[in-house]
Amino acid sequence: MRQQDISKFTRRVAFGIRGDQSLPADPLTWAIQQLGVEPPIDIIEPDGSRRSDLPADMKLLSDIDDVMHAFATHQRVEKESFEKAKTLGPKEYEAYREETVATPYWRLTHWKEVQARETTALFGGAPVFERFWHFWTNHFMVAPGNQNNDTLIGPFQRSLRPLMLGNYRDMLWHAVTHPAMLVYLDNNRNTGPRSRAAREKWTKDSINENLGRELLELFTLSPSAGYTQKDVEGTTLILTGWRDMKPDQWHKGQPLGTYFDFNHHEPGSQEVLGKRYTALFKPSSKLEDLVTDLANHPATARHLAHKLCVYFIDDTPPAAAVDKVESAFIGSKGDLQKVHQAVIEAAWAHLETTRKFVSPETWLLQVWTVSGAQPPRTIPITRSVRGLKTPYLLGDLGQEIPRCPQPNGWPIRSVDWISKEMLDRRLRVLSVLGGEERRAGRALDMRVNVSLAAARDLHENSPARSVFKQADTFNDARLGLIAFFASPEILWS
Amino acid sequence: MQRREFILGAAGFASLSLTAIPDVWANDSIDTPRVLYVLLRGGMDGLTAVPPIGDATYAQIRPTIGIRQALRLNADFGLHPALAALHGLWAEGQLAVVHSTGFGYTGRSHFEGQDVMQTGIMTPYAVNSGWVGRAMERAAVESGVAISIPMPLILRGNERATTDFPNWMPMLRKADTDAIQTMWADEPMLAPYTAVIAAANGGMQTRGMGKDAFEDAKSMRGLATVAAAQMREDGGPRVGLIDMRNGFDTHASQGAEKGGHADQLRHLNDLVSAFKAGMGERWQHSLVVTVTEFGRTAAENGTTGTDHGVGTCAFLAGGLVTESKVYADWRGLNKQNLFEERDLPASIDINAVYAKVIERSLRLSASQITQGGVLDFKSHPALKGLLGLS
User: Fold this and answer.
1) Most Cβ neighbours (<10 Å): which of B234, B274, B291, B304?
2) Taking Cα atoms as reference points, which of A190, A115, A183 lies closest to residue A151?
3) A44: phi then psi, degrees, rounded to nearest 5
4) Cβ separation A464–B304 shorter than 8 A
5) Would the CB atoms of B125 and A488 count as touching at under 8 Å?
6) Residues with Cβ < 8 Å from B302, sequence gap 6 or more?
7) Confidence band (pLDDT; 50, 70, 90) for B5?
8) In angstroms, what separates the C-alpha of B387 from chain A's closest C-alpha?
9) By the CB < 8 Å criterion, does B122 face chain A?
10) Each residue of B254-269: pLDDT tens digit?
11) Percent of chain A clearing pLDDT 70 (strictly above)
């Protein structure tokens, strides 16, 4: 196997290897051994330690009680700020909103999660695991924009990590019943028309199909399975009453997080894909049974195998690759470690005949990884703090994580990441990143890494190699960055 | 010129036939229509933008945020004072307003509503193409430009539309663009972009834009200038798009003549006047069209704002407008006439308005629009004469 191909493989299943480091001697083992352990995630330094110059409250919340308290507080301050509107003038009101809502919840909440996501990908020691985690956070997309859900997103996404060591059914159950998902897709308002709450007119809410539809379409079967609107309706009714529980005065003592509210649940039995879901003693078990059936449905295995192969291997993946991942899924009953291993093996087996134009985030992580450059450290404590900020940098490239516009996640096909504006920005951002390294006194390291990576990774007679031969790409660091990271070899991993 | 090279270069990869190109260039003359669509995200309050000054209920249900100093349109309707440039167009016969209009979607979710307003399909998340993109595809329009970084959903479904957005980052040098020209030459999916990228760089802005200059370029006035600079060119994009993000969602303290909602309208006003200035003579054959996901509650809420509603108004401004007029099927603001007793109803299907825009600007017939899968709509007698169409 040529060095260039091993390098391509490390970009395919991770973010590449720094220029001055040697490529793994046994790439398959290198990748597969990263699947079995869940690395801790935090805002970390290159040596893996937690960044020490963060404000005291800049902690990642994981405990569900803390998360639901933060969610409730955010909703409360939003509401309070609306009340303040009555007493403040427009300018004062704007300043008040900025301080109480925009800075803490729209800016810092997302900043700390993105910073953790990117620094852990770079310095956490298991980039292959991170690449698969990025896949799952995209598969189970929860984005800001609904019911002040900002504080729920990071904790939800991070809670998927341990489940990557288990089976798909458990991850699916967790994702579908997590308060972040129930809020994001409005299932906390999904109320059965024959439920007590509807009959006694406690609420004007009724059926909301958002989660029911996505459960079938995105998370399991996919439309190619041929389910019908009736199946969506059955699934939606089974989901009625599943809602979030946050601290409030009416539910003292109730565990926070996920709550099954029988008073909003549609009683009786419902039908999905020709099977009746009935619960004699425990109505919530209807959803448990449905999720189990959907997770084990052959169409789910096919859909996930195809999606994983599109994400990691090629927009039109080889049939043999999809078949391999599908059999691994079915054979192991959805054991995700086995499924991930099959993806890695298929990526390896079909490496030379396939290629992916990766998302801006993945590409940026490749740039940082291979060049040794580091992500910006600016903490956007107020609106006027100057300096590069990672979420906005991603936004400049066309992927402002976590602000994904639609529940079907960021595009996974190459063609969606190729536009004039997005290509131009990938080129221009390289000089910005180079400037950051220069200011940080790391310019020489970066130039060495890029030169070594070019010698290691670019094909012998490729046009990119010729740019390196003809120009002084070592002293013209900007040209070196462009000639390497915008070369077809690197853009198409 | 850069666009021409781009399109010719793109012929290799996009699914367009080479023979289609010369016809389109030949067809582009000074009177070929240009349409700039403006997405007003967050839900524009039609009762603030175009207050129904002739409806006695208006002042009662909006004691704090009602507009008292409206610019007069006719006995029934006025314009928000921040929309002075639009009022100027009204005087010149170049402003049409459709009121109490909206999408058939009534779920009041931004999230779904912004999907629906772009796909034109009343079921959220049903398709991955936009109604403008499908119309361009159906009419074989060769180019459109979204003033945006990613391609917005509303223009998807047409592979020739491109993107452009002000960039604060330092421009590329010739050595940089030469390098990509060398490297991407044999890459069919990348090569078409090297010439446009080279053309967009190599200017004076080698040190990057300062914060203020970038803010200026990103303002609605700045974006409209960028759009017009391309669309006024011979062979330039016939369709443009500007995305105003989320400023219209004023649940609290929305203000009246001044305030949060007024600021957004002022941006829209700036956008229209900058686009008009930028288009020069082509303005006479141009149109600016607004698209918002829903209107807001008819009555003000307890926090001197408005909540998510249904019906709103839409603006059509430009030389393609044949007569300044408010097109409406007005049912009054009394509670029993509101949708679910709270919202201005969408008594005119807004898709019927957009179908007329497509018919006039892209020369598709109503049946080509519906049967061609572009847009379904319910026509309304009140729209007779809009854009000079029956």
Assistant:
1) B291
2) A183
3) -125, 160
4) no
5) no
6) none
7) very low
8) 33
9) no
10) 889 888 899 999 999 9
11) 100
**Residue B167 sits at the chain A interface (C-beta within 8 Å):** yes
What is the percentage of chain B residues whose pLDDT exceeds 70? 91
| Cross-chain Cβ contact A145/B109 below 8 Å | no
CA distance B206 to B169: 9
Max mean pLDDT range (A331-340, B139-148, B256-265): A331-340
Question: Euclidean distance between the first and final Cα of chain B, in Å?
Answer: 37
In chain B, DSSP finds a helix count (H) and a strand count (E) of 14, 11
* Packed helices B211-218 and B220-231: angle between N→C axes, nearest 10 degrees: 60
Residue B182 amino acid letter = T
Q: Model ipTM?
A: 0.91
Cα distances from B305 to residues A436, B64, B77, B88, in angstroms, run 44, 9, 21, 28
Q: What is the model's pLDDT at position B12?
A: 29
The pLDDT score that the predictor gives to residue B206 is 52
Residues 89-148, chain A: which have Cβ within 8 Å of B? 90, 93-94, 145-146
In this predicted structure, what is the pLDDT of residue B7? 28
CB contact under 8 A, A423 and B208: no
Q: Which of A308, A64, A332 is nearest to A177 (CA)?
A: A64
Nearest CA in chain A to B192: A420
Task: Provide the pLDDT for residue B208.
Answer: 67
Probe site for chain A from B110, B115, B183 (most A CB atoms < 10 A): B183
CB B101 within 8 A of CB B313: yes
Rounded CA-CA distance A482/A488 in Å is 11
Model pLDDT for residues A421-448, shown as the tens digit of each residue: 999 999 999 999 999 999 999 999 999 9
Residues in chain B with CB shorter than 8 Å from the CB of A90 are 253, 255, 258-260
Mean pLDDT score of chain A, rounded to an integer? 94
Binary contact (A467, B201; C-beta < 8 A): no
Residue A334 has pLDDT above 70, yes or no: yes
Question: What tens digit of pLDDT does each residue of A355-371 get?
Answer: 999 999 999 999 999 99
Residue B165 touches chain A, beta carbons under 8 Å: yes
How far apart (Å, rounded) are the C-alpha atoms in residues A306 and A126?
24
> Residue B247: its pLDDT value, please?
77
Contacts of B114 in chain A (CB under 8 A): 405
Q: In this structure, what DSSP letter does residue B386 have?
A: G
* Structure confidence by residue, pLDDT tens digits, A134-153: 999 999 999 997 789 999 99
The Cα–Cα gap between B254 and B258 comes to 9
List the single range of A302-306, A381-385, B335-339 with lowest mean pLDDT: A381-385
Each residue's pLDDT tens digit, A444-480: 999 999 999 999 999 989 999 999 999 898 999 999 9
Would you give the end-to-end CA distance of chain A in angstroms?
Answer: 16
Q: Does A372 touch chain B (CB under 8 A)?
A: no
Please name the residue that has the structure tokens 């020209």.
B181
DSSP state letters, A183-236? HHTTGGG---TTSHHHHTTS-S-----HHHHHIIIIISS-GGG---HHHHHHHH
Tokens 């099927």 locate to B329
Phi, psi of A259 (to 5 degrees): -140, 130
What is the C-alpha separation between B68 and A183, in angstroms, rounded?
Answer: 40
Q: What is the pLDDT of residue A139?
A: 98
Number of residues that this document lists for chain B: 390
Residue A389, judged by CB atoms within 10 A of its CB (0-12, 13-18, 19+), counts as buried
How many CB atoms sit inside 10 A of residue A441's CB? 8
| Residue B111 in contact with partner chain A when CB distance is under 8 A | yes
Give the pairing of strands B34-40 and B71-72: unpaired
User: Side-chain half-sphere of B112: how many Cα atoms within 13 Å?
Assistant: 21
